[in-house]
Amino acid sequence: MLKEISVHKATGTWVVRTDNSVLGETRNALELTEGNMPPVIYFPREDIGMAFLEPSDTTTTCPKKGVASYFHLVGRSGQVDDVAWSYETPADAVSAIAGHIAFATGTIHVEKL
Fold first, then answer.
1. What is the mean pLDDT of residues 45-54?
2. How many domains does the chain have?
3. Domain region containing 92
4. What InterPro entries does this protein map onto (predicted)?
5. For the chain, which has fewer Cβ within 10 Å, the N-terminal or C-terminal residue?
6. What SS3 class is residue 92?
7. What is the pTM of this model?
8. Rounded Cα gap, residues 55 and 82, in angstroms
């Protein structure tokens, strides 16, 4: 059985950063919830410093969201593989996340200010 999924506007200001750099900040983030998994914050692509990200060859498929394309973080310290993803043509149920990008936590920090 597929988990319930929903997307809504995330309240407040959100920032995504590494230990050394701010990659983006927005008041227009979306929060995606799926079953009992932790929520994922999606940033509008225009609010992200895309110069820090390089497209990856990695893709994954989710039956509820569609095909995700991944990005590497590229900086002075080197490259960190597949730290971000986006759904270029998401499924209708989550169409709001088109044009947005999400980040894996760990090397990347996603925080509400």
1. 96
2. 1
3. 5-112
4. DUF427, DUF427_sf
5. N
6. helix
7. 0.94
8. 9
